[in-house]
C-alpha cells in the first residue's frame, strides 16, 4: 500500500465553480455538502459557484467542507496508508477533521466561528499581505522591525517555501516596507485578501477562538499533522492552545512539510483543494517526491487511475 | 538570443514554476486559462526570466499566451543589447 501525505489547501486557493462537477456527478459529495450547508447555515453550493465574490465568512466553511468531502471519497475509492497531513492555515481544519481530531459537525461549527471572528475583525482595520520572492530572511526580519512601531506593524506571516514568503501588517507599514524592498531591487506583489491574516491584527479573533475551543473535546489525530504555528505534531492536549494562536502567528508550511517528509518517508503527496499551490511549494522544498491533485472531477479520476496503475 | 532559445528558456521556467511538462508549454497556450497559473505564478515566472536573462520586464496585462511572453522577452533582450 502506498504511504501518502495529504496536503490541504488554504484560503486563497478557491476558484469559481469549484466542486460543482463533483456535486453533480457523485451523490456522496452532494450529500456531504448538503449536510454541511445545513450545519453551517450557508448555501455552500452557491458559495462554490461564486468564490471570487464570497466573503471570508463563507469561504472558510466552504473550503473546509469541500476538502473534507473529497478526503472521505478518496479514502473510500482507493486504499492509501495515510501517514501524515499538512494543511496551510485554514487547511489545518480540514486536515484535523480528516484525521478524526475533530468530528465533522464540531469541526465545521468551529471553522464557521473562526471565519465569523476573522471577518468581523478584518472590517475594523486596514491590513494587507504581500508576497516577497527569493527572500533573505534575516534581512527581511530586520526590515520588518525597522518599519514597525508600537501602533503599526509588519511581519512575516507565511513561510511558504524557500523561494517565497508573505508579509502582513497594517497597510501603511506594509507600504513603507514595500518601498524599501523595491529600492533594493526585491520583487513584491500585493495579494488580494481581506486582511493581514497571521499577524497580531487578529488578536481579538484569537481571544474569541480561545473561548470557543474550551467547549471542544479534541481527539488525537489518526495520522501526524505538524502544526503551522509550532511545527510540533498536533495532539488532543495541545490543540486548544495552538488553534487560537494560529490566527496571529506566522505559518511555517515549509518546515512542517520538511519535518513530515523526514519523519514519515511517504511515497507520494496528494493535494486536496482547488489548484496546486501546495504541490508547487512542495516541489520547491523537495522536488523528488511524486505529487498528485484532486481538485476537479477530471483530475480526481486521472489521479485515481494513475495510482491504481502503479499497484 | 534567437526566439527559439528564448522559447526554450520560457518553457523551462514555466514548466518548473507550474509543475507541468515542458511539452505542455506551447506557444498558443494561455498561461492562466490553459496552464492554470495564478497571478502570483505569472509574477514568479517573470521574476525568474528577469534574473536568468538579466533583463527588466514591466507588468503587462496584455500578456496572455506563451507567444506573448516570448515576444515580450525578445523585445527586452534586443533593447538590452
UniProtKB/TrEMBL annotation, chain A:
Stated EC number for the protein is 2.3.1.39
Q: Which PANTHER family match?
A: MALONYL-COA-ACYL CARRIER PROTEIN TRANSACYLASE, MITOCHONDRIAL
GO cellular component terms attached to this protein's record: cytosol
In its UniProt record, which GO terms are filed under biological process? fatty acid biosynthetic process
Q: Where is the Malonyl-CoA:ACP transacylase (MAT) domain?
A: 7-300
Protein name from the UniProt record: Malonyl CoA-acyl carrier protein transacylase
**What InterPro entries does the record tag this protein with?**
Ac_transferase_dom_sf, Acyl_transferase_dom, Acyl_Trfase/lysoPLipase, Mal-CoA-ACP_Trans/PKS_FabD, Malonyl_CoA-ACP_transAc, Malonyl_transacylase_ACP-bd
Q: From the Swiss-Prot or TrEMBL record, what is one GO molecular function term?
A: [acyl-carrier-protein] S-malonyltransferase activity
Its domain of life?
A: Bacteria
Q: Which family does it belong to?
A: Belongs to the fabD family.
Instruction: Provide the active-site residues from the annotation.
Output: 89, 198
UniProtKB/TrEMBL annotation, chain B:
Gene coding for it: acpP
Q: Which residues carry this modification: O-(pantetheine 4'-phosphoryl)serine?
A: 39
Query: According to its UniProt record, which protein family does this protein belong to?
Result: Belongs to the acyl carrier protein (ACP) family.
Quote the Gene3D superfamilies the UniProt record gives.
ACP-like
Q: Quick check: keyword Phosphoprotein in the entry?
A: yes
Q: In which pathway does it act?
A: Lipid metabolism; fatty acid biosynthesis
GO molecular function, a single term: acyl binding
Q: How is it modified after translation?
A: 4'-phosphopantetheine is transferred from CoA to a specific serine of apo-ACP by AcpS. This modification is essential for activity because fatty acids are bound in thioester linkage to the sulfhydryl of the prosthetic group.
Task: Give any single GO term for biological process.
Answer: lipid A biosynthetic process
Q: What does this protein do?
A: Carrier of the growing fatty acid chain in fatty acid biosynthesis.
Q: What is this protein called?
A: Acyl carrier protein
Q: Per the database record, which ranges form the Carrier domain?
A: 4-81
Q: Which organism is it from?
A: Ligilactobacillus apodemi DSM 16634 = JCM 16172
Its primary localisation, in coarse terms, equals: cytoplasm
| Entry's localization field | Cytoplasm
| Keywords attached to this entry | Cytoplasm, Fatty acid biosynthesis, Fatty acid metabolism, Lipid biosynthesis, Lipid metabolism, Phosphopantetheine, Phosphoprotein
Q: Name one GO cellular component term.
A: membrane
Q: Name one Pfam family in it.
A: PP-binding
Q: Which InterPro entries match?
A: ACP, ACP-like_sf, PP-bd_ACP
